[in-house]
Amino acid sequence: AATYDVTAVEEKWLQVWKDLDPFRADDASAREKRYALTMFPYPSGDLHMGHAEVFALHDVVARYWWLKGYEVLNPMGFDSFGLNAENAAIRDNEHPATFTYANIAVSTESCKKFGTSFDWSRTLNTSDPDYYKWTQWLFLRFYERGLAYRKESPVNWCPVDQTVLANEQVIDGHCERCGNEVTKRELTQWYFKITDYAQELLDNLDELEKTWPDRVITAQRNWIGRSEGAHVTFPLVEEGAQRPSRNRASEITVYTTRPDTLFGTTFMVVAADAHLARELVTDDQRPAYEDYLEEVRKASDIERLSTERPKTGVFLGRYAVNPVNGQQIPIWAADYVLADYGTGAIMAVPGQDQRDWDFAKRFDLPIIRTVRPPDDFVDDAAYVGQGPAINSANDEISLNGLGIAEAKRAIIDWLESKQSGKGAVNFRLRDWLLSRQRYWGAPIPIIHCPVDGEVPVADDQLPVVLPELRGADLTPRGVSPLAAAEDWVNVECPKCGGPAKRDSDTMDTFVDSSWYFLRYCSPQDDTQAFDTDLVNAWGPCDVYIGGVEHAVLHLLYARFFTMVLNDMGLVGFREPFSAQLNQGTVINQGAKMSKSKGNGVRLGEQLSAFGVDAVRLTLVFAGPPEDDIDWAEMSPSGSLRFLQRAWRLSGDVTSSPGTSPEGGDVALRRITARTVRDAEGLVDGFKFNVLVARVMELVNATRKVIDTGGDSGAGGADPAVREAAEAVTILLSLVAPYVAEEMWERLGHQPTVARTSWPTVDESLLVEDSVTCVVQVRGKVRARLEVVPDISDADLEALALAEPDVVRAIDGAEVRKVIVRAPKLVNVVV
Ligand code: ANZ
């Protein structure tokens, strides 16, 4: 059979697309606008199978929208700051830009060759000074609004990368990048106040739930971690004369989700590394405390919160008063309480909380149960389930007998009346630590002056450009390499003119990627970060396709940025991504591809062996886009055979372009119409694999009419064959653009198929001829009628009762009721 030359076809159309530039988004277009966004890559090398998959899936949607008549913004750029380039630069004694921009060039070419419909006139790199100028500008706007601030706090510290990590970058206590164990350090760091938006970030998920993947919604809800409870204040027992009234705490406030268990609070625990612990500890206990603190600093948050870990702690020598019963309870320091969560101190209820139970057992502290466990409960653990309150009464209030929810309400009311507490909401979400002690990022545009303190760099002095450092200059030494760049870091204070220093930290790369989708709307604008009118015309993004690994990091930050920018009046919407799709992972032989397993699949090799279209088709056809793809089970050669088969159709059509399909083979026309119509829902519902299957069926049906002649015997001359072949070509262009262009040309059309229109569907072909209706009498099927699908209930009833078999079954009995469900069922009750 005839075949096409894959390489020649690719070369030819790559050039045609370059000349025609069919995917340039026109801001001024009168057509309805759609914004198709896919996560931009880190330029850490050439494209790999993972990129190929996401781009192939994404392109289905973008190309579909063009064909449906929308003006489509489908941009691509590079998230080009970050540790990858910096580490490579240290290794190769180079500048990170060398590595970065070489990879960008290679990836861009590969991306074009992959036949993606990106608008390259809008590309951006976050490491370009004309991009990070605006990242800095945005930082300053956040700073002005009090949404960027500095504080000293224990931070996650990677001893190998010598940098601070955000909580999100610590995976099971290990550095996301190098895999080494993360420790804690006290540092003054920059934060974004994302917690101000915690409630809205949570609330909007109820709406996003309809169009975002469940796993992302769940991950965000958990990350935000809203809980309801109370703040409860415990007065401190004075230490006596030993330490007269210094400026010290006189009470401790805790956050608890279980104020109903207050009567069972038998001790308190303060985070060992919280300032409060240092403040509280008595001189006697100080040495023991200091020793303990040393130990604590080595543990990660995950380890600290683990219920598995043996409990450790130290008595601080102080006591507090339980406001419900006046009892004096000891205050301990331990590591299972975190310094930066809630208030950094807890009321310990060993009867109801397992970690408190373990702690009480370890240090021989009293345990009082305040919820009655079921009779079969084995009495060697905390009871965390439901049950009536017990042991919970004082002279004024009794919770005994109440369920947890009621008891909570009652005790909160009582605490509020005594001014000992207040109902409260707490979030697990913390502020976003954004400073990094690394070189390859956007410098933070702040100058520190001994006289004037923090002084923002003036807008007209932006960008604060990175100094030229390379190789060994970049080796982390605990301070940012920028701090060591004397010429750069030492400046005059913009206010007083005295000696001052630039802030030597750079911004987390998640800052860069929190607004890039806005910049795409006016990427060359050197007067502003983005054009508000254009952002509002294109945005919010109608679809965002990318990896689920960004479920909580990037997606939450980008949402936060959008809300802040909306508050500033710079963006007209509060949520940036209307719909979302996460692709699965491409694996091989059942396992994640890795160097050590030697199971990596090289994209380049696949492309040269089977061609771009066959690889794309294989990725899209593999299964639902969310599922992982095991490349070992795929058949790119089978995909190529199918493409050849589809291509052959275009050579067998002998009617001329523009021929009316009227009068053609009706069965084929129906299949074509149904395939086109269903394709719309399948693309909208991200069921791209089903779409491919339907195109395959259409190819087979068309082939059959060509080979057998069809109803009219006209075969390739039948106008229904042209109609079908053109539909195949257009649908196939979503997945296999090269062969589709070739087919479109062979069918006598001008390029490019990508910018033709979606096939029109003759609605009458979608109407099914007849439906089978079942008629039951006394619950037994007595007849089957062929009826038109839109028959009315009345007509159907009349038809059924006139049917001879039905009349016979009724046999003169009185008809009590006829239940009609047109067009499929009639039930006669006699
Ligand atoms: C008493 C109590 C009794 C608690 C009980 C739980 C069960 P979420 O839901 O995550 O907000 N907690 C508060 N601050 C903490 C900190 N800094 N480090 C570690 N744990 C802390 O959890 C709130 C609960 O976690 C609080 O309610 C507190 O323990 C603990 F039967 O208070 B609870």
Automatic annotation (TrEMBL):
Keyword ATP-binding: yes
Chain location of the short sequence motif 'HIGH' region per the record: 41-51
GO biological process: leucyl-tRNA aminoacylation
CDD domains with a match to the protein in the record: Anticodon_Ia_Leu_BEm, LeuRS_core
PROSITE patterns with a match to the protein in the record: AA_TRNA_LIGASE_I
Limits of the Aminoacyl-tRNA synthetase class Ia domain: 429-630
Amino-acid positions noted as binding ATP in the UniProt annotation, renumbered to this chain: K595
Subcellular location: Cytoplasm
Entry EC number(s): 6.1.1.4
GO cellular component: cytosol
Alphabetical list of InterPro entries matching this protein: aa-tRNA-synth_I_CS, aa-tRNA-synth_Ia, Leu-tRNA-ligase, Leu_tRNA-synth_edit, M/V/L/I-tRNA-synth_anticd-bd, Methionyl/Leucyl_tRNA_Synth, Rossmann-like_a/b/a_fold, tRNAsynth_Ia_anticodon-bd
Span of domain Leucyl-tRNA synthetase editing: 221-416
Motif mapping: 'KMSKS' region: 592-596
Start and end residues of each Methionyl/Leucyl tRNA synthetase domain: 38-183
Stretches assigned to the Methionyl/Valyl/Leucyl/Isoleucyl-tRNA synthetase anticodon-binding domain: 670-790
UniProt keyword terms in alphabetical order: Aminoacyl-tRNA synthetase, ATP-binding, Cytoplasm, Ligase, Nucleotide-binding, Protein biosynthesis
Catalytic activity: tRNA(Leu) + L-leucine + ATP = L-leucyl-tRNA(Leu) + AMP + diphosphate
Principal location: cytoplasm
GO molecular-function term, one example from the UniProt record: leucine-tRNA ligase activity
Recorded family membership: Belongs to the class-I aminoacyl-tRNA synthetase family.
Protein name: Leucine--tRNA ligase
